[in-house]
Amino acid sequence: MFAQACANIALIKYWGKRKAALNLPAVGSISLTLEALKTHTRVDFDTHLLHDILKINDQPASPEQQKRVSEFMDIVRSKAAIDQHARIDSHNNFPTAAGLASSASAFAALSVAASRAAGLTLSSEDLSRLARQGSGSAARSIYGGFVEMIRGIRNDGTDACARQIKPPDYWDLRVLIVVTSRQEKQTGSSAAMKRSAQTSPFYSQWIEHSENDLAEMRMAIADKNFEKLGELSEFNALKMHALMISSRPAVIYWNARTMDLIHFVSDLRRQAIPVYFTIDAGPQVKLISLPAYTKVLIEKLRDIPGLEDVIESSLGGDAMIEEREG
Ligand code: PMV
Q1: Contact 1/117 with Cβ under 8 angstroms?
Q2: How far is the CA of 33 from the centre of ligand 1 (A)?
Q3: Residues pairing with 130 in the sheet
Q4: Residue 231 C-alpha to ligand 1 middle, in angstroms?
């Protein structure tokens, strides 16, 4: 069984868990699904296998990745009441684990492919809840366009899933993914979130102000107010990085190019180019802009030394089964 899912970037970030065992988020989040960053995954259950076999981009997965995916497959097996193991082949068309949300597209594609291969027919909401258990941000990658992850209040997580706010063609936003480093990150997001929750003096304020940021972002999307959407994205991303930086010991995902790009974006706004940034748990910077400006932005990015890559993306669609011959 083949499936595909797009990565997403959060405009309002998820940072912190209310219950780690079920990956229940401490705050809701709002994201854009990215057409240009995709994971394609194939899942085949096989009675002869003694354990799951995972390959990522044709390479055997690390023991940690293998363990994380096998635990996820256990959830699928228990839902489907089967005990077979599976061969899983996953391909990303972008760097893995360097803050390009590869876990989001990976667990969304895996949820769709594995559940169908196991004989389950799940609704989008069920798929989102399942994907959430692999990676919090993956719950959003089940849907295309503008997506909100609902924090939920129940302990069993049944109310913690994403929903689509608007489809991809509602508003033609563009995202430039600026790759500043291809190195894998040192601290994974779950460990970093835990550290922020336990040690950052700003964590309680982060939680307290979250509903406010979500409400403002919903409004910016409803009004197609680009300046508001951009300003709020930067504010919320910098608040999240303030939590990381104020943790003990600090988690600093930025490199020197990340900082250069932050200044580059505000310089461009002074030149009347509508562009804003957001940054996830990694050194890459995502520029949010409008179709008429991507050409000039790409040209101007050429002046910044040391960048690895620039990927232009429009908004992507729902995660789905791919009809392919096995
Ligand atoms: O899905 P996770 O556990 O890798 O968490 C990702 C968290 C951020 O990307 C930093 C923010 C977000 O909302 O996507």
Answers
A1: yes
A2: 13
A3: none
A4: 20
Pocket test for ligand 1, best of 8, 12, 13, 187 (most atoms within 8 A of CB): 13
Give this prediction's pTM.
0.96
Does ligand 1 lie within 6 Å of residue 264's CB atom? Answer: no
Boundary residue ending a domain (122, 143, 168): 168
pLDDT at res. 95? 61
What whole-number distance in Å separates Cα of residue 244 and Cα of residue 217? 22
pLDDT at 249: 98
Q: Whose CA is nearest to atom 8 of ligand 1?
A: 280
Instruction: Check if 105 has its Cβ closer than 6 Å to any atom of ligand 1.
Output: no
Give residue 143's pLDDT: 98
Return the best residue to mutate from 189, 214, 240 for the ligand 1 pocket (most ligand atoms within 8 A of CB): 189
Q: Are 181 and 160 members of one domain? A: no
Same domain, 152 and 216: no
In a domain, 61, yes or no: yes
For residue 107, which of 148, 140, 74, 154 has the smallest C-alpha distance? Answer: 140
Task: Tell me the CATH number at 113.
Answer: 3.30.230.10
Q: Is the CB–ligand 1 distance for residue 27 below 6 Å?
A: no
For tokens 């990015």, the residue is: 301
Supply the pLDDT for residue 93: 86
Looking at 110, 136, 168, the residue that finishes a domain is 168
Whether 38 and 141 share a structural domain: yes
**78 domain residue, yes or no:** yes
- CA-CA-CA-CA dihedral for 242, 251, 133, 182, to nearest 10: 110
